[in-house]
Amino acid sequence: MPSPSDPVAVALFGLEIRWYAVFILLGVLCAIAVLRQLARERHLDPDFPLDVAPWIVLLALLGARLYYLALDPDYYLGNPDQAVNVRLGGLTVHGALAGGALGLYLYCRYRKQRFLTWGDLIIAVVPIGQAIGRWGNWANQEAFGRPTDLPWGVEIDPGRRPPGFENAETFHPTFLYESILDIGIALVLIAIVRRMPANRFWREGDAIWIYMILYGVVRFIIERMRTDSLYIGPWPAAYWVSGGLILAGGVLFMMRRSIWPGAIVADIPLQSVNATND
User: Domains in the chain: how many in total?
Assistant: First the structure.
């Protein structure tokens, strides 16, 4: 699998549009399109995703960058001009999830919408955006794994190879592996949110907790193959966060059926979908 020699997709009148941005934008648009259909099926306002998307995307990008900066503070304190340079990457999924969740919560409070109802629908399409956005890593020749001779190994330019692997030419395309697994997560969550109104087993927020578990597992597996992980102590930062997601997702799923009972989706009257959560 060859990598592009130029991360710039289009250059017009001195303005560069990079593949990284193209894939992220395409992922956002595809996710919104599916989300609007899910909203229609749930008898929710299909235009709400269009209204909330700018806030989610803005805070997701901010969270993604701040998390990345926090993992290497010494470098960015010494090179403050690089803190806002995201043209060649430097955005983290975990930071984006935190920022996007905050954006959704604040906007739902403002619009008096049920945060967990929309949270379930939005988290079901988030993996679609992730799956497409991961191809920005391919364009930037980053987030790849260890060397491999497998036919689908990705070619990495000498200047982009990590220390110790200068003589290797092809590496595991971990971005591709995660992209495929993200599509699998999306299919599972979309099936769940479509069944929620017809099955009394499901409670508000269940899709969120299940996503936390599934993506935590996927990211933990993928991170074991990476060569460019950022570390917190002896382990990659993604290990800590993924472990936290798995634990928190499992605990919250059980709590909603015990000490913190959640609303059963099938029991929520249609007229109450515009009300904030208790």
Answer: 1
